[in-house]
Amino acid sequence: MAKHENYNYMRAISDINGFDIKNHSDTPLQLIKCIRSWFSETVSIANMITSNKVYSDFIDFNTELFLVKTNKYLGEHNSTEAEKFAKQEIEEMTIPEYILEIERWKTKR
């Protein structure tokens, strides 16, 4: 078992071998800049939008998602409870649910 774990660890290390590790300073905008840079350097994607635009869109999406989920509960609950349920629903969303919400948001724009 230890050997298998060690192998997986070594394989993961070899996957990042040759790539510069970038520090995102635990800030969302800096993380987006690092990921954008990685896509450019590693996957050779060009003509990407700016990191600030990605961050702005991310904030807009999350704001709208919270409002949509809050409004879903407002008919039967007060605003405090509706916000609590909305937050919980968002936290419990699966990746496929989250992707569907992104697609819904993108089509509305």
Structural overview:
75% of the residues lie in helices and 0% in strands. The protein has 5 helices and no strands. It starts with a helix and ends with a helix. It is elongated. It is mainly α and 109 residues long. Helix 2 (28-42) packs across helix 3 (51-74).
The rounded Rg comes to 19 Å
> What is the count of β-strands?
0
Strand residue content: under 5%
Q: What characterizes the major β-sheet?
A: none
Instruction: For the record, give the distance between the C-alpha atoms at the N and C termini, rounded to a whole number.
Output: 50 Å
What is the number of helical segments per DSSP (H or I, 4+ residues)?
Answer: 5
Spans of at least 5 consecutive residues whose pLDDT stays below 50 are: 1-5
Secondary structure category: mainly alpha
H-E string: HHHHH
**Morphology:** elongated
What's the pLDDT, averaged over the residues?
Answer: 84
Helix content estimate: over 70%
Structure, briefly:
The chain is mainly alpha-helical. It is built from 5 helices and no strands.
Write the layout of secondary structure elements.
Layout: H1 2-16, H2 28-42, H3 51-74, H4 79-92, H5 95-108
Helix pairs in contact: 2-3, 3-4
